[in-house]
Amino acid sequence: MELNLDSEVLKAYGYTKENIVITQIGTGLINRTYLLSPPAEEKKYILQNINTSVFKSPQAIADNLKAIADYLKENYPDYLFVKPIATQNGEEMAIVNNEYWRMLPYVANTVSLDVLTEPQQAYEAAKQFGKLSRLLNNFDASILKPTIPGFHDLALRFEQFTLALSTTTESLQSQAKPQIDDALEHKYILDYFKSYSHRVDFPDRVMHHDTKISNVLLNAQSFEGVCVIDLDTIMPGKFISDLGDMMRTYLCAFSENETDLDKIKIRLPYFEAMIKGYLSEMKTILTETEKELILFSGKYIVYMQALRFLTDFLNGNNYYSISYPAQNLDRTKNQFELLQELSRNEKELQDIIEENLV
Ligand code: GN1
Ligand code: MG
Prior knowledge:
The protein is an alpha+beta fold and 358 residues long. It folds into two domains: 7-106, Phosphorylase Kinase, domain 1; 119-357, Aminoglycoside phosphotransferase (APH), C-terminal lobe (Aminoglycoside 3'-phosphotransferase, Chain: A, domain 2). It has 13 helices and ten strands. It has helices at 7-12, 58-75, 119-135, 154-167, 170-175, 177-185, 188-197, 240-250, 268-282, 288-292, 294-314, 327-344, 346-357, and strands spanning 21-25, 32-37, 45-50, 94-96, 99-105, 110-111, 205-207, 216-219, 225-228, 235-237. The strands form three sheets. A five-stranded antiparallel sheet has the order 1-2-3-5-4. Strands 6-8-9 form a three-stranded antiparallel sheet. Strand 1 (21-25) and strand 2 form a beta hairpin. Helix 3 packs parallel to helix 9 (268-282) and helix 11 packs antiparallel against helix 12 (327-344). The protein is globular, with a radius of gyration of 21 Å. The mean pLDDT is 95. The structure holds 2-acetamido-2-deoxy-1-O-phosphono-alpha-D-glucopyranose and magnesium ion (MG). Magnesium ion binds next to loops. 2-acetamido-2-deoxy-1-O-phosphono-alpha-D-glucopyranose is lined by residues 28-30, 54, 148, 210, 233, 256, 305.
């Protein structure tokens, strides 16, 4: 495979293509990621190209990570926070031909999963994301910069959808007609959120904002959670972002790319494990309003993701990587099916939440 990797980038960190083994890894839709294995060292490294059409200010990411790392180091020195390694010139990133790169330590003896095959994995992952928020409960989230402004702002996502709807082609619009109707019919989710958003006990917290299972490292033998990774979207947000995205990505055995909608079913044991893991860290910290919105967090995030995929489809697919033209539309259908599943199982899910809140 031809690696799209300038040797100047390696040089910034003291390597050359000759003294290092490079493999492309990861399944993310946004950044390019490489594993670097210098044969002369025991350690390995992760090298990542930051997608600057998505992250317009890589410096904001670097500043956020530094502020959080400093706080954690002072208050929780044993906590493993995987922050970037400086270049040989002491810079936080290597900038080569206007591209931003950063290098991270590879955490040895860990695995990252692409799919969950056991409820315990949901427990471990949810615990790790909950732990990060708990440790940062007294950290002033307002000093962090939004690395993607309005990232999980559903009102903005709805506006972006209506804009795409008014500017798209007739052909795409008619192709997506049922999903456009779904998007409009579910707008009550946004209205419901707005009715809560001004409550005083609904604070901004430090959120990871991308809590899919592959963003947690597990111990390779015990499968216990070790740490969270992919920290570009750490920024202030409502607690619903992290828990909601876990519901979106852990509960069904099949991903957002699954096109057979009969397979989109919620697995209750995974939900229960996820709730237990998250609350094991966050139960004493969540406010009454937040506790009320636990199940709603899933609806909010799944609906938002459906809108985002649909918007991208209507805009001609310029955001998410696709492998065929209608893939973002298929992902939209998948997410609306998942949203329906959350509603169909509402009673059972809410019972599980309540059992675990006492
Ligand atoms: C993007 O690239 P990845 O998988 O880490 C997106 C998330 C979406 C996800 C959907 C910065 O994340 O918000 O939920 O795709 N990240 C960004 O697969 O837009
Ligand atoms: Mg990500």
